[in-house]
Design a protein that fits this description.
Length: about 90
Amino acid sequence: MEKIENIYVYMDILSAIQNESLLETVQFQENAKPYHDWNERITAECYAANSSSHILDSNNKIKDISNNYSKISFNFGPPCFPGLKAHIPVF
């Protein structure tokens, strides 16, 4: 099998944390189940998943765990970073 030298991945991380501006809390969102709201769901299924991606061997056994964020060049814009920093401990 041919060795892959480079992989280019585009990640669009523009979703700001959504909250109820008067209460400064996120309301329950039925369509985000099993999570409380879409912020929690996106964090669990996208952001957190990319921080510990499983590298599998030919038998589909985990041979390594990779933090994809450590391997990419990125820029958190003004709408995204403050919300991430406030709600996600790794930031």
